Amino acid sequence: MGETRVAHRRDLNTEPAPHSSQTSHQQNKGLAVLLDNIRSGWNTGSILRSADGFGFTQVYMCGITPTPDNESVTKTSLGAEDSVPWSYHKDAVKLVKGLRKTSRIIYALEEHEQAIEIDQLSGPLKDSILIVGNEITGVDPELMEYCDKVLYIPMRGEKRSFNVAIAFSIAAFALSRK
Predict the structure, then answer these.
(1) CB of 41 within 8 A of CB of 66?
(2) What is the pTM of this model?
């Protein structure tokens, strides 16, 4: 599923998975988030910290998304990179194609004509992945083709979207309550 680097908390099993099309991080079911070309290390760090706080089991960092090798990520994550498993993937589309084969449900948080308000999502959400996209361009349209549903957060002011880290935190709160 493309170039991959995996990092885990020190006390997690870091042994490679048996030879298969899945790596150990893909078997870590639960709520996960995929960061699609997030430009800001501060946003990435904030998302890591929120992912930890809401009990997400994995953070997939894709494309140009900075990893905890970047000082701005670790400065805002405050150590969350050590408590929530994360991995880097060059190609998000290849990753999502592979994750769909593991029976994961894929959601995108995006403005879209078929999007449903996040509070209207029902059913158990374990084994789900939420994709959040680039601060300017949103979720890659090719990734959108692989999503089971598209979710949105209603806006009441003049702006059309929240900062990506804030939007993720709102969505993480809503999803973790389901």
Answers:
(1) yes
(2) 0.83
Total domain count for the chain? 1
Task: Examine the pLDDT at 45 and tell me if it is beyond 90.
Answer: yes
Domain membership flag for residue 22: no
Q: What is the pLDDT of residue 121?
A: 86
Assign residue 164 the CATH number of its domain: 3.40.1280.10
pLDDT tens per residue, range 116-154:
888 888 876 778 999 999 989 999 999 999 999 999 999
Instruction: Judge whether 159 lies within some domain.
Output: yes
3-state secondary structure the chain: CCCEEEECCCCCCCCCCCCCCCCHHHHCCCCEEEEECCCCHHHHHHHHHHHHHCCCCEEEEECCCCCCCCHHHHHHHCCHHHCCCEEEECCHHHHHHHHHCCCCEEEEECCCCCCEEHHHCCCCCCCEEEEECECCCECCHHHHCCCCEEEECCCCCCCCCCCHHHHHHHHHHHHHCC
pLDDT at residue 124, rounded to an integer: 65
